[in-house]
Amino acid sequence: MDRPRQSRGALLINNLPQLQNLVKRDPISYKEEFLQQWNHYDSIRLLFEAKPDDAENAGRFRELVTFISQVCHCYKEETKEFPGQLSRLLMEHYGTLNNDLKRSMVQNLVLLRNKDIITSIDLLKVLFPLLPRTSSSDLRLFIRTTILTDIKTANARHKAVKLNKAVQVMLFGMVERGMDAEVIGDKGKLRGQVRGEGANKSAGDEAMWAVMVAKELWRKNVWNDPKTVSIVALGCFHPVIKVQSACAHFFLNSEEAVEDSESEDEAPDLGKLAHQRQIKKKTKGLDHKIERSKKKARKMRIAQENGTNKATPNFPALHLLHDPQSFGEKIFDAINKYDKRYSLDHKILLMQLLSRVMGAHKLTVLSFYPYLTKYLTYRQLRITSILVCLAQSVHDLTPPDVLTPVIRKIAHEFVTPGVAAEVVAAGLNSIREVCRRQPWCMEEDLLGDLIEYRKSKDKGVVMGARSLLALYRDVNPGLLKKSERGKAATIGMANGSQPLNYGQEQRPAVTVEGLELLEEHFAQLRAEEGDDAAGLMDDDDDAAWEGWEVESASSSDSEGWHDVSSDEGDIVISDSDDDRPKSKGKKVQPADEDEDLKPEDAATPAATEVSLVSNLATTKILTPADFALLNELRLKAVATEAEHGLAGKSKKRKLAELQANKASVDPDAFLTEADLLGPRKKAKATYEERMASIQEGREGREKFGSKKGKIMKENPSSSTNREKRKNKPIMMVLASQGVRSKKTLSLSAKQRKLRKHIQTAKKAYK
Question: Could you tell me which residues come within 8 angstroms of residue 577 by beta carbon, excluding any fewer than 6 positions away?
Fold first, then answer.
């Protein structure tokens, strides 16, 4: 019996994947079937707008949305309202829609963006509001990844200015919407209210996601403009503590800010890759992967040797701040105003941000130093972090009158006989760091008292006092006693050298120190190489400039002889060598080779002063490699004099200074707590350090336990109970139950026991 044949439309109604394939192949022929599905979608959409939590039609609606998203590019006129309908449904009923349906609709919006049905701006206008409202972690991760990938792809070849401006405006709006809320704080009972419900929480979540997106795009080097910094800077004044903390960590570039990038910065395991190369199939892809891993490992090793991978403050972000003075004043106003609401950790975080901004831009916030004074006591929690904030905020333009009470407070609280040596060392090092940035804040009598601690028995205190003495020997020896100034400072004062006054800048250098050593080195190379030395040095200069940007300059044609024609009229003489006209004809002799110049006229003081300057400084442009070689030659020369006993104390100090400069990687890096604590005795180890030490001591050692009775046996085992009884202490034997029971035995029991012992002994000798 034949089956009833169904029509083509009836077959395709319930088989949307097959219809999708056919529509893509021939859109015109299957337009009627598509319109039928479109009408079905439109009717279900109206039902969902009236009842968003309808679970019966959710599956069918999800299938229809996916089908229309796949084929909407074939019927652009009929589906022109489709992206707007999806966006409106998501924005208005996002909280009540099914999770699977929400994910499907978001994925289809991304598909429409990939097909260029909608623009990136239209997509991001929908995704950004959904990000803080999403409760599903998987969907939230998908939305976040989509946003970052879309912006990064748009800026891959060139900057997408229009897109970046639109996104930055949206991020600014997300941060600004919660700025008018009340600051709750995170201190004491207020800590539980930070995660409260309501408009404040939603505004905080929205601002938090805006800051996270801006930070991630900055970290990936997609955005590096001042507008991105302004978004994060605005978040530093947000009433939600979580947003403030995230923005402050961005500028400080601390471990919390780079936590997400740790997985990307891990060094590749070259041993594991080499093992895979041996056991797996040999392919070109695996070979390329190994080569890339070797290059990455080499770069990370070089960065680690040079110290460039250290966690340093985010200098580009700090320097791109708009109006840093107002930014610093607002930060201090927030600290001072909400002092009772902020916890100590959060206040120190804002202090660190303020101090680094003040140090980077040389700002002056005078009220900051009296505010810090109340925390300057050695019993204060996290006092080392507060001292670091104080030292970092000082610069050469800070008024000394503001710092003098602070220095006196540190000296009275820390540098006293009644405290531990570590406290005294921290106080001396803190005073030294403050005075290194502003030497005029020190008083003469206080300096004399602090220097006397160089006679202490503790190494940290001695080094702190000596470093303070060495500092003032260089910057202002007039504050020291005559017996404490040292030879170099005394000679300098006798020659009339004066310290720089407050606000006065140093004079520019006339020449490069030790340049004659480099000139002698090049002369020695010329003597060894002979005629080919000049060409070799030129090649070395070209190689030394690799990786450096050098501005091209046209060579001057004014060297040597010039032909000057006599028929071109008078020669115009100009004050500038660049404006001199080029002439031809008569040879003109340079002025420095004039025959009328007498030898005795040349021996003038000016000529003598010029002759002291190395010829290398006027004939050669020094490359970075030349400066590195110069430092090596200076260090080698001073070390040679010290080895042969030709160097005095000043030379030895110079050698130590050169070695310290060579060892220091980043002299402009901000201070750390270890710099203020100085050298310390062995501090108490943490639990992790103690466990690591225990595990290290167990390496290569046999298992712990007694070896008695295990050495001369085939099967290692412990000693028997009979062997153990032989070594039992006599007092324990006398107190045992067996010995005490012998005293209470009857005569018959003793006879039975003796008879049993005799029988056992006879059996032993058989």
Answer: 556, 558
Residue that the structure tokens 């503001």 belong to: 402
- Written as six digits, the tokens of 720 are 């028997």
Express each pLDDT in 676-731 by its tens digit.
Answer: 888 777 777 888 889 998 888 888 777 666 666 666 667 777 778 888 888 889 99
Which residues partner with 82 through β-bridges? none
pLDDT of residue 281: 77
Taking the CA atoms of residue 179, residue 181, residue 186 and residue 188 in that order, the dihedral angle to the nearest 10 degrees is 160
3-state secondary structure 366-421: CCHHHHHHCCCCCCCCCHHHHHHHHHHCCCCCCCHHHHHHHHHHHHHHHCCCCCCH
Average pLDDT (234-257) is: 85
pTM check: above 0.90: no
Cα-only R_g, the chain: 41
For helices 421-437 and 459-475, angle between their N-to-C axes, nearest 10 degrees: 20
DSSP annotation of 479 reads G
Q: Report the C-alpha gap between 647 and 645 in whole angstroms.
A: 6
> What's residue 576's pLDDT?
41
Rounded to 5 degrees, φ, ψ at 563 are -90, 125
Q: How many CB atoms lie within 10 A of CB 475?
A: 17
The alpha carbon of residue 460 and the mean position of all alpha carbons in its chain are separated, in whole angstroms, by 29
**Summary mean pLDDT of the chain:** 79
Q: Match 């229309």 to its residue by tokens.
A: 68
- On whether the CB atoms of residues 214 and 171 are closer than 8 A, the answer is yes
- Other beta carbons within 10 angstroms of residue 350's beta carbon come to 20
C-alpha–C-alpha distance, residues 435 and 394, integer Å:
9
**Continuous segment of H or E residues that includes residue 563:** strand 563-564
Q: CB atoms < 10 A from the CB of 119, how many?
A: 13
pLDDT digits (tens, 9 = 90+) for 565-602: 444 444 444 444 444 444 444 444 444 444 444 444 44
CA distance 508 to 495: 20
Give me the percent of the chain exceeding a pLDDT of 70. 75
Mean pLDDT of 339-352: 93
Of 348, 368, 349, nearest to 358 by C-alpha is 368
- Cα separations in angstroms, 136 against 102, 103, 123, 132, 140: 10, 10, 20, 11, 6
Q: Which residue type occupies 339?
A: D
Query: Tokens for 382?
Result: 């996290």
As given in the structure block, the two tokens for residue 362 are 């040389």
Among 37-41, 119-123, 428-432, 652-656, the range scoring the smallest mean pLDDT is 652-656
HSE-up of residue 692 (Cα within 13 Å, Cβ side): 5
Mean pLDDT of 521-530: 76
Mean pLDDT of 159-171: 94
**For residue 237, what are its two tokens?**
């004044």
CA dist 590 and 559 (Å) reads 9
Q: CA-to-CA distance for 649 and 393, rounded, in angstroms?
A: 35
Residues 493 and 485: beta-carbon distance below 8 Å: yes
What letters, b where the CB count within 10 A reaches 16 and e where it falls short, cover 191-206? eeeeeeeeebbebbbb
Q: Are 293 and 329 in contact (CB under 8 A)?
A: no
Among 558, 602, 607, 548, residue whose Cα is nearest residue 583: 558
Q: Average pLDDT of 219-248? A: 93
DSSP type of residue 585 = B
Both structure tokens of 247: 């923005």
Tokens for 525, please give them. Answer: 């190379």
**Tokens at residue 424, please?**
């005294």
How close are the terminal C-alpha atoms of the chain, in Å? 105
d(CA 638, CA 628): 16
Main-chain dihedrals φ then ψ at residue 568, nearest 5 degrees:
-100, 15
Alpha-carbon gap, residue 39 to 47, rounded angstroms = 13
pLDDT attached to residue 383: 95
pLDDT confidence tier of residue 267, bands split at 50, 70 and 90: low
In terms of Cβ atoms closer than 10 Å to its own Cβ (0-12, 13-18, 19+), residue 32 is exposed
